[in-house]
Amino acid sequence: MKSAKRQDINLDSFSVLFILKGGVFMQDVLIVGAGVIGGSIARELSKYNLDIVVIDKENDVANGTTKANSAIVHAGYDAVEGTLMAKYNALGNAMFDELSKELDFPFIRTGSIVVASSEEERAHIEDLLNRGIENNIPGVKIVEQEELRRIEPKIGKEAVAALLAPTAGIVGPWEMTIALLENAVDNGVKLDLNTEVLDIEKIEGGYKVVTNKRDYKVKCVINASGVYADKVHQMVAEKTFSIIPRRGQYFVLDKTQGELVNHVIFQCPTKLGKGVLVTPTVHGNVLAGPDAEDLSDREDLGTTTERLDFVREHSLKSIPELNFREGIRNFAGLRAQPSTNDFIVGEVEGAKGFINVAGIKSPGLSSAPAIALDVVEIAKEILGNVELNKEFKANRKHHYEFITETAEKKAELIAEDSRYGNMICRCENITEGEIVDAIHRNVGGTTVDGIKKRCRPGMGRCQGGFCGPKIQEILARELGKSLEEIVLDRENSYILTGETKG
Fold first, then answer.
1. Which position among 74, 124, 233, 398 bears the catalytic label?
2. Kindly report the CA angle at 489 between 73 and 309, in degrees rounded to 5?
3. Quick one: which of 473, 494, 475, 489 has its CA closest to 60?
4. Which of 57, 96, 181, 220 has its CA 20 to 30 A from that of 66?
5. Residue 182, SS3 per DSSP
6. Is 398 an annotated catalytic residue?
């Protein structure tokens, strides 16, 4: 038999040989979900010689819960000792410094405070302190009024004390996820977007995953599908848990408010969550929210006047000087609230080779790197004889933020590519060179919001009022598409429908 030629068959040499010998080719791992959990697992798995594919029903990565959350790396004092949330939060928090350096995403250890506004609430933060000590969280302590007002001068007058957790921080959640998946793809992982799971069938040696695009035959399936994780689970096993979509609404305030807040500021939590927070962002804005509202609709990202009024009222208890007239955007996100009240991580009983990573609500973002480590160990046990990828690259290509570079580096960038000298977004000082780079990376942006997530044009005070049309033009030019084909975010979120009369 003649050997197969690589230019004729789009498979690696091992796969071709296997098929020629009469075998049925199966990929090693399929990850359902390209959020921060799926991205973390994909990147960790890419350290091994495996055939891995990540699929997501959306038009871009980080388009679910990852796109719309509080962007907090929690210290880990809040979760009940012995839960998976407590385990993974503490471990994950400690991994962010090295991870952010390797993958070049924004992360700052600001510290967090939980404010007690009465002696009754003081008892609550003392309980949180004891829980933090049980969870081995470094540096947690209670600060009294004098120290509290020194570290957070604009705090409300009613504050009597606060729990300080110095290891808490803030992160760019979509930048982190994009970085994880860029690095995973650099190391051989495949990414298929606009690919929705319709069914999963058990077959010999693994599973057939049926999607709207194609079928995948894989040895191991990892279910990291966020608010749909229970639905995907029920394709292979009986119902053992349910996911409740919990909506939270937020305000983003202009950078003029940035100097009012130094730490992540929590109020004492309620039974529905950690309460309304006020926090700086990694880019200098202020974020206020969320509320908590359980829904049945897994796609409802609408905001309401009533709930935003609630967020505003409670935020002002923390920082009375916040000026909500400086709000530049409102948004809502959905958290995957599990019926178990804890993360669900592990191989499903009776469904060998199927791993759930479900119910990853807060502190899921903080826990993601540590969850990935355990999931990879489970996958390795399922697959057996897994070898290290000796060519693994830990670092991803650096993304230049032109405005923050030295004068010498700016001149160098412009000399290499004159488009770095063309300012597109005046609010955030983003150049054409940065936008073009974001388009042509291996997990590049193809939509207006996709570019916004990668390098921030349209994130400023005017919210794309000036730069939006220019970004459409750049996307159309670089992708070889018409302007009408460039969408805002999801597949059918059209911006233009055609020309008006001349």
1. 74
2. 60
3. 489
4. 220
5. helix
6. no
CB 73 within 8 A of CB 364: no
| Rounded Cα distance, 370 and 96, in Å | 10
**CA–CA separation, 248 vs 301, rounded Å?**
9
Region 138-167 average pLDDT: 97
> Measuring CA to CA, which residue among 333, 325, 332, 281 is closest to residue 461?
325
Domains of the chain: 1-107+170-242+339-398 (3.50.50.60), 108-169+243-337 (3.30.9.10), 402-485 (1.10.10.1100)
For 32, residues 6+ apart whose C-beta sits below 8 A from its C-beta are 38, 55, 56, 197, 209, 221, 222, 223, 224, 225, 232
Amino acid at 175: E
Q: What is the pLDDT of residues 419-455, one digit of tens each?
A: 999 999 999 999 999 999 999 999 999 999 999 999 9
Q: Give pLDDT tens digits for 248-302.
A: 999 999 999 999 999 999 998 755 556 799 999 999 999 999 999 999 999 999 9
| CA–CA dist 41, 455 (Å, integer) | 24
Mean pLDDT, the chain, rounded, equals: 93
Q: Is 4 exposed, middle or buried (0-12, 13-18, 19+ CB in 10 A)?
A: middle
